[in-house]
Design brief:
1 helix, alpha+beta
């Protein structure tokens, strides 16, 4: 009889102690759950300060929180420029996109190609540090890094090699 009473008392004490331990951990343990979305054949509109700035088309989209990953991407600006990339990682909050793979920027009279770039969609700026090739009419420029502002149009290339045709 004494043994069973002792075992029962020990069981109750262990039960109370484990309950208190779990309650104490509940305040310290934090699990954040984010929704994941997957879509195919997508179109995204990015608005700037005044109006629609970019239309983004992608073959596949994966969305986790504020981050969006797209593959097979075409981005068209309201200024008449287009950006193509194999993949794009877009942060919805900052409106910055990291473009990877073969990245092409086209305007009315120029063409830019690089392997990796960042597009600040709200400021209309594309820049990169992975080497760049730029064609304008029949002139060709190669450089180590670049910055292109779309409005007003401005191009800066560092460590330049040029080729001009007459």
């Amino acid at each position: 009889m004494k043994r069973s009473l002792l075992v029962l008392t020990l069981f109750l004490v262990a039960n109370v102690l484990s309950y208190l331990y779990v309650e104490r951990l509940k305040d310290k343990v934090f699990v954040e759950r984010e929704e994941i979305g997957i879509a195919e054949g997508v179109r995204i509109r990015v608005f700037g300060e005044k109006a629609l700035e970019w239309l983004i088309f992608g073959k596949t989209l994966i969305s986790v929180g504020d981050e969006v990953s797209l593959s097979g991407v075409l981005m068209e600006s309201s200024y008449g420029y287009s950006l193509r990339a194999d993949s794009v990682f877009l942060n919805r909050e900052s409106k910055k996109a990291k473009l990877q793979g073969t990245v092409d920027l086209r305007g009315e009279a120029f063409f830019v190609r690089t392997e990796e770039a960042v597009a600040d969609l709200s400021k209309g700026k594309v820049y990169g540090k992975k080497g760049v090739k730029i064609w304008k009419d029949r002139n060709y420029v190669e450089g180590k890094s670049f910055e292109v502002r779309l409005k007003p149009f401005f191009v800066r290339v560092r460590e330049v090699k040029t080729k001009h045709e007459m």
